[in-house]
């Protein structure tokens, strides 16, 4: 059983504080939308699908606390709640997808009483969370045949149970391959600067008995050159209509290395990550985070004061470097534009 990072219980949203893993397993409690927004912004919860699930609960909490006298008066403050949640992180499109779904749900049930509508919105958040885990299991089943027996798989960042409603996207495929007895080793890039690979991927795979070896990001090329990697699988924060894929910073470098070494480079992502409104990767907003994530590890300073620092949190892998995109509606290969359109239509 893989971990579920977001649990709703009796009006409280419990989220494991992913900033403290793997040293501390601390669950934080949230009861209002402002708190949920802050949790997304500060990365208590992170990973594209998990951000979407958390935002849906945030919207449901915001809705619950709106003191409107009638249903018409409900909608403007509900929009405001969704705007606050949407302003937390810019790259993962699942955040906006989940909020759009909550807003559409609210509009669809205009005929209900206010208290019914609030219940319906909470039920919709539950449904988004439940579906997400199911979708990941389906992606696992579609992706597993791509993984060869005895596979040594490289992954970057954390696209696991912690990044989703459960099971994981890229790590969902890894889990399915492991259940089929095919995984010899998962190599986890540490993923500087936030260390999602060493802190989160290594933690959840090790806990679940999947063999995992940690490497620094700059070791991937060497391992590939030594014939120690068979394929790469990563998640995504946003996939443009042409298949260009935004994912954690460093993913592009891994894709270039995979191409150089003739290794398949797979992306596993739900339909909620595919953004047909964004034509190509150049249009995807890339979050730039605090310089301190680069200059410090915890309280320890690693760089001199006063220097320039860049901290883009994501990069874009051009679709020509992607061997296949695994979705819950099947595996899409180039040409991506019609393939992605088709799976979105089926969704
Ligand atoms: O900054 P993060 O930790 O939210 O970034 C997460 C990633 O880049 C993941 O690889 C991506 O969201 C896929 S998660 C299933």
Which regions have little confidence, pLDDT < 50, spanning 5+ residues? none
Tally of separate domains: 2
The main sheet comes to: 7 strands, mixed
Number of DSSP helical runs: 11
Order of helices and strands: EEEHHHHHEHEHEHEEEHEEHEEEEEH
From the helix content, strand content and strand pairing, which structural class follows? alpha/beta
Mean pLDDT: 98
CATH topology of the largest domain: Rossmann fold
User: Cα-atom Rg, whole angstroms?
Assistant: 20 Å
Question: What ligand species are in this complex?
Answer: 5-S-methyl-1-O-phosphono-5-thio-D-ribulose
Strand-residue proportion? 15-25%
Indicate the CATH class of the largest domain. Alpha Beta
Please name the fourth-level CATH homologous superfamily of the largest domain.
Answer: Translation initiation factor eif-2b, domain 2
Enumerate the strands of the largest sheet in spatial order, edge to edge or round the barrel. Answer: 6-5-4-7-10-15-16
Q: Could you characterize what this model shows?
A:
The protein has helices at residues 33-41, 48-64, 71-86, 93-108, 114-143, 170-179, 196-207, 220-225, 251-260, 292-295, 336-346, and strands at 6-9, 12-16, 27-30, 151-155, 183-189, 212-215, 231-234, 238-240, 245-248, 265-268, 274-275, 296-297, 300-301, 314-317, 324-327, 330-332. It is an alpha/beta fold. The protein has 11 helices and 16 strands. The strands form 4 sheets. The protein has a 7-stranded mixed β-sheet with strand order 6-5-4-7-10-15-16, with helices on both faces. A 4-stranded mixed β-sheet has the order 11-8-9-14, covered by helices on one side. It has a 3-stranded antiparallel β-sheet with strand order 1-2-3. The chain folds into 2 domains: 6-137, translation initiation factor eif-2b, domain 1 (Four Helix Bundle (Hemerythrin (Met), subunit A)), CATH 1.20.120; 146-346, 3-Layer(aba) Sandwich (Rossmann fold). The protein starts with 5 loop residues before the first strand and ends with a helix. 48% of the residues are buried. α2 (48-64) runs parallel beside α4. Helices cover 41% and strands 18% of the residues.
């Amino acid at each position: 059983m893989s971990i579920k990072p977001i649990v709703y219980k009796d009006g409280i949203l419990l989220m494991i504080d992913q900033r403290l893993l793997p040293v501390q397993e601390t669950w934080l409690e949230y009861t209002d939308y402002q708190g949920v927004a802050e949790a997304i912004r500060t990365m208590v919860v992170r990973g594209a699908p998990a951000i979407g699930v958390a935002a849906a609960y945030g919207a449901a909490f915001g809705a619950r606390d709106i003191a409107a006298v009638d249903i018409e008066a409900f909608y403007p403050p509900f929009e405001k709640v969704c705007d606050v949640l949407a302003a937390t992180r810019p790259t993962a499109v699942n955040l906006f997808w989940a909020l759009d779904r909550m807003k559409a749900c609210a509009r669809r049930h205009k005929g209900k009483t206010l208290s019914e509508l609030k219940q319906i919105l909470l039920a919709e958040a539950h449904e988004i969370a439940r579906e997400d885990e199911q979708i990941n299991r389906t992606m696992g089943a579609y992706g597993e045949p791509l993984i060869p027996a005895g596979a040594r798989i490289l992954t970057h960042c954390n696209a696991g149970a912690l990044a989703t409603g459960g099971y994981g996207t890229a790590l969902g495929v890894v889990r399915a391959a492991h259940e089929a007895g095919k995984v010899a080793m998962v190599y986890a890039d540490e993923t500087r600067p936030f260390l999602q690979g060493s802190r989160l991927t290594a933690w959840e795979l090790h806990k679940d008995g999947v063999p995992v070896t940690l490497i620094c990001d700059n070791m991937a090329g060497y391992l590939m050159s030594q014939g120690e990697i068979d394929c790469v699988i990563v998640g995504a924060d946003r996939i443009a209509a042409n298949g260009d894929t935004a994912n954690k910073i460093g993913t592009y470098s891994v894709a270039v290395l995979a191409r150089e070494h003739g290794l398949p480079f797979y992306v596993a992502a739900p339909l909620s990550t595919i953004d047909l409104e964004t034509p190509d990767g150049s249009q995807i907003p890339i979050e730039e985070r605090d310089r301190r994530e680069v200059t410090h590890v915890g309280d320890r300073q690693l760089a001199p004061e006063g220097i320039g620092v860049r901290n883009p949190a994501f990069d874009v892998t051009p679709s020509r470097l992607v061997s296949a995109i695994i979705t819950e509606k099947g595996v899409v290969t180039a040409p991506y534009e019609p393939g992605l359109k088709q799976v979105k239509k089926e969704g």
